[in-house]
UniProtKB/TrEMBL annotation:
Lineage start: Bacteria, Pseudomonadati, Pseudomonadota, Gammaproteobacteria, Oceanospirillales
InterPro entries: 4Fe4S_Fe-S-bd, 4Fe4S_Fe_S_CS
Protein name as it appears in the record: Ferredoxin
Record carries keyword Metal-binding: yes
UniProt KW Membrane keyword: no
Names of required cofactors: [4Fe-4S] cluster
PROSITE patterns cross-referenced by the UniProt entry: 4FE4S_FER_1, 4FE4S_FER_2
Amino acid sequence: MSFSISDRCVNCYACLDLCPSNAISQGVSQFHIDSLRCTECAGHFADPQCASICPVEGALLDGEGQALHPPGSLTGIPPTLRVVAMEGQPAASLLP
């Protein structure tokens, strides 16, 4: 299995130079991971370096397509409150 990058990638370049397998490259609209090269850093690091540095929730996906940083995991903002903020509703209306 290898990681992949979703359309949530913001092209911040943070992951590009950290990949020991040179599996990450710049694509047309976002960075791309070459599945044949990606080893998830096995044999190089204890943790995948791209996942360690990526600042965007939902940008990196595991081999099963699950986000390595699901919504709320980096910001601490629950996904329900984020939706409310995006829709312009007052968050206080959701609080108990």
